[in-house]
Automatic annotation (TrEMBL):
It comes from Duganella alba. InterPro entries: ChaC (IPR006840), GGCT-like (IPR013024), GGCT-like_sf (IPR036568). One of its GO terms (biological process) is glutathione catabolic process. One of its GO terms (cellular component) is cytoplasm. Keywords: Lyase, Transferase. This is glutathione-specific gamma-glutamylcyclotransferase. GO terms for molecular function: glutathione specific gamma-glutamylcyclotransferase activity; transferase activity. Its EC number is 4.3.2.7. It comes from the Bacteria. It is an enzyme of class 4 (lyase). The keyword Repressor does not apply. Transmembrane segments: none annotated.
Length: 191
Protein backbone atom coordinates (compact mmCIF):
# COMPACT_ATOMS: atom_id res chain seq x y z
CA UNK A 1 0.00 0.00 0.00
CA UNK A 2 1.19 3.54 -0.77
CA UNK A 3 2.73 5.45 2.16
CA UNK A 4 0.49 8.43 1.39
CA UNK A 5 -3.03 7.55 2.53
CA UNK A 6 -4.76 10.92 1.96
CA UNK A 7 -6.61 9.87 -1.22
CA UNK A 8 -7.72 6.52 0.26
CA UNK A 9 -9.01 8.18 3.45
CA UNK A 10 -11.00 10.73 1.49
CA UNK A 11 -12.96 7.91 -0.17
CA UNK A 12 -14.25 6.88 3.28
CA UNK A 13 -17.96 7.76 3.28
CA UNK A 14 -19.18 5.85 6.34
CA UNK A 15 -20.11 9.01 8.29
CA UNK A 16 -21.20 11.18 5.35
CA UNK A 17 -24.13 13.36 6.41
CA UNK A 18 -23.16 13.28 10.10
CA UNK A 19 -22.61 16.66 11.77
CA UNK A 20 -20.05 15.23 14.17
CA UNK A 21 -18.07 12.01 14.60
CA UNK A 22 -16.15 10.52 17.55
CA UNK A 23 -12.46 9.94 16.86
CA UNK A 24 -10.43 7.66 19.14
CA UNK A 25 -6.84 8.77 19.81
CA UNK A 26 -4.23 6.38 21.19
CA UNK A 27 -0.94 8.07 20.26
CA UNK A 28 -0.06 11.70 19.74
CA UNK A 29 -3.76 12.52 19.61
CA UNK A 30 -3.94 11.87 23.36
CA UNK A 31 -1.64 14.79 24.14
CA UNK A 32 -1.71 16.90 20.96
CA UNK A 33 -5.12 18.06 19.75
CA UNK A 34 -4.15 20.69 17.17
CA UNK A 35 -7.71 20.86 15.84
CA UNK A 36 -11.05 22.14 17.09
CA UNK A 37 -13.29 19.67 18.90
CA UNK A 38 -16.72 19.69 20.50
CA UNK A 39 -15.95 17.26 23.33
CA UNK A 40 -12.92 15.35 24.66
CA UNK A 41 -13.39 12.24 26.82
CA UNK A 42 -11.24 9.33 28.06
CA UNK A 43 -12.26 6.19 26.19
CA UNK A 44 -11.09 2.73 25.14
CA UNK A 45 -11.38 0.27 22.31
CA UNK A 46 -11.51 -3.50 22.63
CA UNK A 47 -9.48 -6.05 20.67
CA UNK A 48 -6.55 -3.79 19.83
CA UNK A 49 -3.20 -3.12 21.46
CA UNK A 50 -0.86 -0.09 21.08
CA UNK A 51 2.57 -0.89 19.59
CA UNK A 52 5.56 1.20 18.47
CA UNK A 53 5.66 -0.74 15.22
CA UNK A 54 5.01 1.98 12.62
CA UNK A 55 7.81 3.87 10.90
CA UNK A 56 7.61 7.66 10.85
CA UNK A 57 9.09 9.24 7.72
CA UNK A 58 7.57 12.66 8.17
CA UNK A 59 7.24 13.51 11.89
CA UNK A 60 9.72 11.67 14.12
CA UNK A 61 12.13 10.46 11.46
CA UNK A 62 12.92 10.83 7.77
CA UNK A 63 12.45 8.51 4.76
CA UNK A 64 16.13 7.56 5.07
CA UNK A 65 16.00 7.06 8.84
CA UNK A 66 12.39 6.50 9.97
CA UNK A 67 11.49 6.96 13.61
CA UNK A 68 9.10 4.65 15.48
CA UNK A 69 5.54 5.69 16.38
CA UNK A 70 2.46 3.82 17.53
CA UNK A 71 -0.14 1.92 15.61
CA UNK A 72 -2.79 -0.56 16.75
CA UNK A 73 -2.42 -4.32 16.38
CA UNK A 74 -5.37 -6.68 16.68
CA UNK A 75 -5.18 -8.84 19.82
CA UNK A 76 -8.07 -10.84 21.24
CA UNK A 77 -9.00 -9.67 24.73
CA UNK A 78 -6.83 -6.53 24.63
CA UNK A 79 -8.16 -3.11 25.68
CA UNK A 80 -6.45 0.06 24.44
CA UNK A 81 -7.06 3.19 26.52
CA UNK A 82 -6.87 6.66 25.03
CA UNK A 83 -8.80 9.86 24.42
CA UNK A 84 -11.82 10.38 22.18
CA UNK A 85 -12.72 13.65 20.46
CA UNK A 86 -16.07 14.64 19.02
CA UNK A 87 -15.15 16.50 15.83
CA UNK A 88 -16.84 17.86 12.74
CA UNK A 89 -16.09 16.14 9.40
CA UNK A 90 -13.90 19.05 8.13
CA UNK A 91 -11.33 18.18 10.80
CA UNK A 92 -10.62 14.91 8.99
CA UNK A 93 -9.06 16.87 6.10
CA UNK A 94 -6.49 18.23 8.55
CA UNK A 95 -5.94 14.86 10.23
CA UNK A 96 -5.72 12.95 6.93
CA UNK A 97 -2.83 15.26 6.03
CA UNK A 98 -1.17 15.11 9.46
CA UNK A 99 -1.38 11.29 9.54
CA UNK A 100 -0.80 10.57 5.85
CA UNK A 101 2.24 8.32 6.42
CA UNK A 102 0.39 5.00 6.25
CA UNK A 103 -2.62 5.58 8.53
CA UNK A 104 -6.12 4.63 7.34
CA UNK A 105 -9.39 5.59 8.97
CA UNK A 106 -11.30 2.61 10.34
CA UNK A 107 -14.81 2.55 11.82
CA UNK A 108 -14.75 1.09 15.33
CA UNK A 109 -16.85 0.85 18.51
CA UNK A 110 -15.53 3.32 21.12
CA UNK A 111 -16.29 2.64 24.79
CA UNK A 112 -16.85 5.37 27.41
CA UNK A 113 -17.47 4.73 31.08
CA UNK A 114 -21.18 5.25 30.41
CA UNK A 115 -21.71 3.63 27.03
CA UNK A 116 -20.51 2.96 23.52
CA UNK A 117 -20.59 4.80 20.18
CA UNK A 118 -19.47 3.98 16.65
CA UNK A 119 -16.53 6.19 15.71
CA UNK A 120 -13.27 6.29 13.84
CA UNK A 121 -9.63 5.56 14.53
CA UNK A 122 -6.49 5.94 12.41
CA UNK A 123 -4.61 2.64 12.05
CA UNK A 124 -1.37 1.85 10.19
CA UNK A 125 -1.80 -1.75 9.05
CA UNK A 126 1.11 -4.16 8.47
CA UNK A 127 0.75 -3.87 4.67
CA UNK A 128 1.75 -0.19 4.56
CA UNK A 129 5.29 0.43 3.34
CA UNK A 130 6.30 2.44 6.41
CA UNK A 131 5.42 -0.46 8.77
CA UNK A 132 8.47 -1.67 10.75
CA UNK A 133 6.90 -4.43 12.84
CA UNK A 134 7.84 -6.07 16.10
CA UNK A 135 11.10 -5.63 17.98
CA UNK A 136 12.04 -5.93 21.64
CA UNK A 137 11.23 -2.95 23.87
CA UNK A 138 14.98 -2.49 24.38
CA UNK A 139 15.65 -2.34 20.62
CA UNK A 140 12.69 0.01 20.12
CA UNK A 141 14.12 2.32 22.81
CA UNK A 142 17.52 2.33 21.07
CA UNK A 143 15.83 3.10 17.74
CA UNK A 144 13.84 5.96 19.31
CA UNK A 145 16.98 7.33 21.00
CA UNK A 146 18.73 7.86 17.65
CA UNK A 147 15.68 9.15 15.67
CA UNK A 148 14.38 12.66 14.99
CA UNK A 149 12.30 14.33 12.28
CA UNK A 150 10.52 17.56 11.37
CA UNK A 151 8.26 17.31 14.46
CA UNK A 152 11.25 16.86 16.79
CA UNK A 153 13.05 14.06 18.61
CA UNK A 154 11.37 10.66 18.60
CA UNK A 155 12.06 10.50 22.35
CA UNK A 156 9.76 13.52 22.94
CA UNK A 157 6.91 11.60 21.29
CA UNK A 158 7.49 8.58 23.54
CA UNK A 159 7.86 10.64 26.72
CA UNK A 160 4.78 12.77 26.00
CA UNK A 161 2.73 9.64 25.34
CA UNK A 162 3.93 7.92 28.52
CA UNK A 163 3.16 11.05 30.59
CA UNK A 164 -0.27 11.43 29.00
CA UNK A 165 -1.12 7.79 29.80
CA UNK A 166 -0.01 8.32 33.39
CA UNK A 167 -2.22 11.42 33.62
CA UNK A 168 -5.10 9.31 32.35
CA UNK A 169 -4.32 6.77 35.06
CA UNK A 170 -3.69 4.05 32.48
CA UNK A 171 -0.88 1.52 32.52
CA UNK A 172 0.62 0.38 29.21
CA UNK A 173 3.42 -2.12 29.78
CA UNK A 174 4.84 -1.80 26.24
CA UNK A 175 5.06 2.02 26.41
CA UNK A 176 6.38 2.13 29.97
CA UNK A 177 9.03 -0.58 29.26
CA UNK A 178 10.31 1.42 26.28
CA UNK A 179 10.35 4.57 28.43
CA UNK A 180 12.39 2.73 31.08
CA UNK A 181 14.91 1.41 28.55
CA UNK A 182 15.25 4.86 27.00
CA UNK A 183 15.93 6.44 30.40
CA UNK A 184 18.58 3.75 31.06
CA UNK A 185 20.20 4.46 27.68
CA UNK A 186 20.33 8.16 28.49
CA UNK A 187 21.91 7.41 31.87
CA UNK A 188 24.45 4.95 30.42
CA UNK A 189 24.61 5.36 26.61
CA UNK A 190 26.57 2.11 26.09
CA UNK A 191 23.72 -0.10 27.47
C1 LIG B 1 -3.66 8.66 17.48
O1 LIG B 1 -3.06 9.24 18.36
O2 LIG B 1 -4.76 8.17 17.65
C2 LIG B 1 -3.08 8.54 16.16
C3 LIG B 1 -1.93 7.85 16.03
C4 LIG B 1 -1.38 7.74 14.79
C5 LIG B 1 -1.99 8.31 13.70
C6 LIG B 1 -3.15 8.97 13.86
C7 LIG B 1 -3.71 9.08 15.08
Amino acid sequence: MTANTIAINQLMDKFDGHHSVWLFGYGSLIYKADFPYLQRRPASIAGWTRRFWQGSHDHRGTPEAPGRVVTLIEEAGAICHGMAYLITPEVFTHLDHREKNGYLRLAIPITFEDGEVEGLVYIATPDNIAFLGAASEQDIAAHIARSAGPSGPNSDYLNHLASALRELGRHDQHVFDIERHLAALRAAPSE
